[in-house]
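Slack export, channel: ligand-projects

TW: morning all. Re-posting the request from yesterday since it got buried. We need the structure predicted with the small molecule present, not the apo form. The ligand is S-adenosylmethionine; the SMILES is in the block with the sequence. No rush, but it would help planning for next week.
GE: picking it up
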Amino acid sequence: MGIYADQVLPRLIDKLCGAKDMTVLRERAVEGLHGTVLEIGFGSGLNVPVYPPEVERVHAVDPAVVGRKLAAKRIAASKVPIDFVGLDGQQIPLPNASCDTALSTYTLCTIPDPGRALAEVFRVLKPGGTFHFVEHGLAPDAEVVRKQHKYEPLNKRLAGGCHLTREHWALLEAAGFELDRRTAEYGKGPKPYAFHYIGMARKPA
Ligand SMILES: C[S@@+](CC[C@H](N)C(=O)[O-])C[C@H]1O[C@@H](n2cnc3c(N)ncnc32)[C@H](O)[C@@H]1O
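GE: finished. pasting the full token output, ligand included:
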């Protein structure tokens, strides 16, 4: 991995992803989250302050050790018990149908095989359980898409494997989810990096 990936990148992500405009999107994504929650790509715990009061406990999954350290204060300040259960969203060490809801923010862009991670989220959710997300991905405009493909190789190298061209609706539907709530829009920042998919997908009951 190296010093950049292990030490520098998690700190950069903590700063950049902690921006106010992203917090507003996080607040939209967590709406309806409740009960026992699986969070993949927990990172430095930037979602902890916006968990709704109905959240009872969180099982966190993330490979970044430094992210975990950066999360310590947010975890200590939280009323919700948070335990780290695994390192890889593609292989989650939780039983089938053990979580009420699940959360991912700006993580499906980075996981090497997002289809596999979504299959795991689907497996651990109870029937009728919901997956809440905000992710960036493939834009609707040809010129932006052209730039996304152009910048993606360098972005992957600089940002821990982060892809710019993932199409999240298709990934979610392929994993068996029904899309209950979905919006897609440009946020703040350069368009190739800032087309957001926000919503809630359900595992059929
Ligand atoms: C851009 S950061 C987002 C962090 C956090 N979700 C947030 O919104 O601030 C991407 C996160 O995905 C994590 N990640 C990378 N590969 C992963 C994997 N295979 N399974 C779970 N998380 C992973 C990284 O360690 C990092 O914390």
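GE: first-pass observations. The two ends are 41 Å apart (CA to CA). Residues 13, 17, 40-41, 43, 46, 61-64, 67, 88-90, 105-107, 110-111 surround S-adenosylmethionine (CB under 6 Å).
TW: perfect, thank you
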